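REQUEST
  id: r-88c1
  op: predict_structure
  target: Protein kinase domain-containing protein
  payload:
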Amino acid sequence: MGGDCAPPEAPAAKRQVEAIPGLSPLGNLDFQSNEPLVVDESASIVSGKFHDGKAKTLKELGVRSALGVIGEGTYGRIYKGTMKGKAIAVKQYLKGFHITSFREAVIMRYFTALRRSERPGPDAHWPLAECLKVARPNDENEEICVVMPFCPYDLYGLIKSGDAAQLNLAAIKSIMRDIVDGVDIMHRFKHLHRDLKSSNILINAKGRAIITDFGMTRRLPLNHPSTPQQIKTHENNKDGTGDARRMGRKPLSPKPSTRWYIAPELLLKDQYYSLPSDIFAMAAVFIDLIAGKAPFVLEKHHDKDSADYQYLTQQLQTLGVPTAKDWPRGVQLVADLNREKKGTWAAPSADTCLSISVHEALDRLIRRRFSSEYSAYPESCKALVNVLTHMMALNPAKRYRTGQLLRHPFFNDSLLPRASPPTNLPDKSVLDKSVARLTGGQGSFVLYGNLFKQLQEDKDRDRQRRGPKEAYRSRSHGAPIRRPHHHK
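RESPONSE
  id: r-88c1
  status: 200
  body:
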């Protein structure tokens, strides 16, 4: 296996903010502190104030607000405006200078500076959100604002509006490759995004995808192991922790991701998860784009814990229950969770698992979504199925890495159709989350529930309609997914 794979570090209870190599957090954020800048993780607030003469206000930068609020999150609001005649987005962080806001601002400046060495050409696409300026809203306000290029769409909006359902295979490939490209840059420079989801993928006016929202992102220690063999050693250890500590690994807070896109190891409370968790989330985003719904979505849940376990049950019923041969670390994680939740949760048994394999279900999905293009470009469609199957492997060590994905025939343009950014996108902003998400985008899948179960039911209906001999079947390609039963 190729590509980076190293587990993230955990934040200390109280520590000085680490400078990213070559970038001082204070200097690059364009403000100075009147006191040592300290992160108090318990309070989750960065202490220290702007120096009046250092950080300019938005007015001083020439920023003019035009359309008011176009997005809002836990820690900030996004406004659309103009600066020097160009459309920009201004993200204003609220609730003081929260550690999440500080982390995102530093990481955005880091990757913005990195672009100059990685892709210096003015026309080269940069798939990570850029920080053009850091400023204060006004003279009286010490909250922080980040000025970014404006993108008229986000992927979630295109999906829920039904516009993504009109995209052809070449456009889908272009969006997917941009996302892989962005995650590859992050992983090569030891950053784990931890919250990849459709709403965190922006689409610019040229139809190119850009990853945003780095509030949950963590930078991995430079001495962390990153080769596939090192992560495999960790995954195959009996409990994982002893080996991880010997290699300098530190635990990370579990379950930072949005449930629709979360990797199973996070739901299993593995505090030593690593870069492959981003790969799984990326696969869920791709399926959301293709099918119009994320692979695992619950309709109702009463509390956070019960929802987590329902998601985990859906995933294990689909991907298979860990075995000592395929994922030793997973066996231990399941056993630990069974003991912890005795009487309230248990791993699904073999007879409750789906009879359809992940590969067959994805092949059925691709045939259904790209019916005409599957006939015209069968090899490309099969390559897409192979990509998604490997990205969703239950064992994190067996998932494709970003380097492998970029070299894969589906993404390297060795197969037709070649990637082509989508054109004729609607002349509107879909950042407004008030629009109701369409059922399945294409109107063909129920929004809630397990997509793979729906594809199995679709297969069963096919068999009943056509008869067992004429029922749709797909031959397995690529590495098989281990099933906890003998169904072929």
